[in-house]
Amino acid sequence: MLRLLRSASVRLAVGYAALFVISSLLLVGLLWWGTAAYLDRETAAVIRSDIQAIKDELPYRGLPGAVTIIQDQLGAATDGQAVYLLADQSLKPIAGNLQVWPSEVAPKPGWYQVPLALAGRFRTIEIEEVALPGGLHLLVGRDIEDRGEVRALIVKGLWWAAVGAFVIAVAGGLLVRRAVLRRVETINSTATAIVHGDLSRRLPIHNSSDEFDQLAKTINLMLSQIERLIEGVRNTSNAIAHDLRTPLAEMRAQLEELTKARQPRSAMLDGVHKAVSDIDRVIGVFNALLRLAEIDSGVRRSGFRLVDLGELATEVAELYGPLAEEKHATFIVDAPEGLATRGDPHLLAQAVGNLIDNAFKYTAENGAVSLRMACADGHIHIVVADNGPGISASEKPRVVERFYRCYSNGDVDGIGLGLSLVESVARLHDGELLLTDNEPGLRAILSIPAGDTGNHPKSSATSVRDHVQAEPQNFAA
Amino acid sequence: MKVLLVEDSQRVAQFVRKGLAEEGHVVDHADNGRDGLFLAATDRYDALILDRMLPGSVDGLIIIESLRRTGNRTPILILSALGEVDDRVRGLRTGGDDYLTKPFAFGELLARLEALVRRSQGVEIRTSLTVADLRLDLLSHRVTRAGKMIALQRREFKLLEVLMLHAGQLLTRTMLLENVWEHHFEPQTNVIDVHISRLRQKIDAGFDPPLLHTVRGVGYRLGIDA
Fold it and tell me: Considering only CB atoms, which residues of chain B are within 8 Å of chain A?
């Protein structure tokens, strides 16, 4: 029993049944008080008032007065249900409709229920006996045979109601237990399947928006996140195997060759320099991976502060500005100050930098790159667009994967982590990275929820070059 | 200068000792925290290079804490394989002056070490910087070379200022990014190189000798000799 009670569903079911029985009993009791008990009370009240009337009469008109009242009452009562008996000390009847003192009634004050022959039939009579001054005894009674039947009917009905309530309570309790158990069992079996490796399993949603649905939705969200992370780890391990082993193998081959061949010193040095720069590349991949892991773990949220994204984007754009001249491309920057958010400034700068970097990497000679910012729906959108080859629709979902490089742009170097990082940074800030078509080219939109600053941005569209020349020429000679 | 290196990896220690010795510096080496703390507390050094994780109970952070509590202000460069920002911040908050993540290029270590020592020797307030015939006026924001005015944009001015403040020293790309752009992030492409070449166009083209030198694989140095 104790073990049974340890089950939450059993406790819930028992609690439910108990509550139902208690409330049903309360209701039945109230009904009883209002019906059967009411009949009893009414009979008693009528008897008492008759007795009181006779008692009141005695001091004024003495025994004859009492006798008159009894006879009046008997005359008025036509239903033959009333019983009166006034008797003297030796219980000899003086007045009333009983010929002898009923043997069942003791000459002591109190209530009695006695079967008496009235109009030739035995009836159950409710009688009160009172002692009157002068040693007189008075009996006043009412036939309760009919009322008794009604009362018995009601009481029987109430008993059935109580039994019915109990049965319903137990059945309801079992139903509640089963409903709870079923939902819990679903969660349990899904979780067990997941433990055994089937990460694609999800809890069914009943669209009832009840607590279980809410719980199921939350658990499903958690499962998606776990699946995504595990998928990420799996992809990353595969990618590491490919992207790190390849350069390591090349490096190893090259160093081995250096130890064997008798080469001139300068060639040896070149080989070593190449190996060092290969190693630097591998280290770069490691650093990028570690940074991604750090971002995804969420620990950097602790360093969040208010960041003016407009100012930050302008600074980063300024850093990359010279790339435009190198590629003879135009670089339009429209980043109004005052667009603030809460975030990690270094990571946001890295994200914006990666987007600009990508744009310049893929845009053609004499191309056009732009960085624009807008605030809509409580989000700050940083839009970096180029007019390079763009990304095909089929590749778009994949480019944010770690180590993914567009095959259509095969010859551009990179380690394939740039957009992954932007996406991770976006997610860390509860934002998102959208890749759309710039027709031609890529339009990358980094949306970050806006922080409240109370400032309203002042918009200005200038190219970087104009922007710089428009500044006071403090540094000019 | 005299440097104490506390590092448990013999190969890394040897690599650093050899490199610093070639630059004419004296290096004492301890391969555990206890000896390192003893040496640091009893001898006078111009700088300490501490490995963050050391065998035994005394690690790099404990050494820093102990030294700082006794009022020892020797500049400290922390070496660590722990690269996450949290560790960097903890290392610097404990009292370290700079933080370098393993693996590192020797040039980066040397550049940071020299910058640390220079900084600890006190920064004199200067209103102008001069290297050979190149002159930068911090008050009027004017730059001249051989008496000729050179027009620089804001960042170019800042870049030149940082290079001239560390004249003769090696500055890595990361150091420039931190000091000129004040951002801790890694540009994927070497955008710093582009900024340097633009600056070089303005201060070196048409003048002799060239002042802004590239140190292969490491960074840049501003000075008369290459």
Answer: 83-86, 101, 103, 105, 141-144, 148-157, 181, 183-189, 191, 194-195, 198, 216-217
Contact A143, A116 (CB under 8 A): no
- The answer to whether the Cα torsion of A95, A97, A101, A107 is positive or negative is negative
CB B50 within 8 A of CB B78: yes
| Domains of chain B and any CATH numbers | 2-120 (3.40.50.2300), 128-222 (1.10.10.10)
User: Using a CB-CB distance cutoff of 8 angstroms, which residues of chain B are in contact with residue A477?
Assistant: 142-144, 148-151
β-pairing, B47-51 with B2-6? parallel
Q: Residue B157 is which amino acid?
A: F
> Which residues fall within 8 angstroms of residue A147, CB to CB, at 6 or more apart?
A39, A43
CB A135 within 8 Å of CB A92: no
Q: Which of 3.40.50.10540, 3.10.20.30, 3.90.1150.10, 3.30.565.10 would CATH assign to domain A299-470?
A: 3.30.565.10
* Distance between CA atoms of residues A408 and B120, nearest Å: 53
Q: Which H helix or E strand runs over B139?
A: none
pTM over 0.80: no
Look at the domain A211-297 and name its fold. Answer: Helix Hairpins (1.10.287)
Query: What's the one-letter identity of residue A435?
Result: L
> Domains of chain A: which residue ranges?
2-34+151-187, 63-143, 211-297, 299-470
Interface membership of A165 toward B (CB under 8 Å): no
Per-residue model confidence as pLDDT tens digits over A169-197: 888 888 888 888 888 888 888 888 888 88
Q: Label residue A2 by pLDDT band (50, 70, 90).
A: low
- Residue A312 in contact with residue A348, Cβ under 8 Å? yes
CB A398 within 8 A of CB A404: yes
Q: With helix as H, strand as E and coil as C, how does A111-125 read?
A: EEEEEEEECCEEEEE
3-state helix, strand, coil in chain B (%, to 5): 40, 20, 35
The SS3 of residue A182 is helix
CATH 3.40.50 fits A63-143, yes or no: no
